[in-house]
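hey m, so remember when u said the tokens were messed up on ur end? i reran from scratch. heres the input so u can diff it against urs
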Amino acid sequence: MKKRFLAMFAVVTFFILSAVPAAAVVNDTIKVGLRYGSSAMTSANLENDVGEGYEFGYFDSDRNFVSLEWTDETTITMSPSGHGTIQVTVTGTDEVLYESDGDTLGVLPSGRSTATWFRGYRYPGGFEYVLSGGLLNVINVVDLEEYVKGVIPYEMSGSWPLAALEAQAVCARTYACRDSKHFSTYGFDVCNGTDCQVYNGLGSGSSAATDRSNQAVDNTAGLMLYYDGYLVQDAVYHASNGGATEDSKNVWGTDKGYLKGKSDPYEAQTSIPNYQWSVTYTVDELSWILDQKGYDVGTVQDVLSQNTHRQAMCGPSPLLVPEAPKLLQVRPAGPSFTAAPMESLSAACAFPSRAAAVVPAAFM
């Protein structure tokens, strides 16, 4: 997931999933985009890992699977037919097993607690294929709790303390169930990468859920975050925060009662690779940046730093706050000084690398 922040307070309450309907979940089933847009495929293979064969048909509006045909073949390939439908063949052959009636096809592996290989990862649930521009969008149609189990070990380490994994599970579940920005365009609720949350299903080899991460999901089953009776739409979190978070109003322009900036004394106790970095600007570059931000200081001659009590934002992420917030004073060509907020400059500061998600202490 992209660097995001979370500061949840007592006013945020927990509800069981069935208490208030969530926008992106129908019958506790979520649609996850695996390949779409620029990653859409000319053909897509499936191979049974656990299970024997497949059913073909479609998912109805309640996300129940309607079966129209079946096969006991264990390796199959879906591809556009060339005339607005989708064909299923035995992988590596021209033998057609099934052809959809339209531009959408549902495939459900046969058996209980199935696991199916797709592009190097094993996935639970079924699959939906949608024709788009002559290519196939691939969607995993999966139980919500199974989905969360496929998120946790990729957004955190599955070996981390159970309480942290439980907090992450609540965040991931809430984030997945918010109003979808993808559904109207692609037909799924949430994507599987860092634009949303990293989801790799049942994983591959050693890269998979752990007993502890699965326990965290089971322990919090159905729990999501609500604020004033409504599902939280910004259950955002981050890899690290530079020592503090920022108010949502100062980042996205909208005040959220549950996204308030606060200091994080625990991050300094964590070892994060490449945590410190710096950037250097020439005088001309600093002058141009200030001018673009509306600070008419002329030509920069010198830069002084002064400690203040104001939270500042720094670096390419507006959520980052250095350990000692500062106001930069920029000396122009004349005798006076012009004070410029730190967010005007991408000055040298601590900035986190991408790492496993850390849930702030306020939520733990």
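this time it looks ok to me. Residues 2-12, 15-22, 307-364 have pLDDT under 50 and may be disordered. if urs says something different then somethings off w ur setup not the seq
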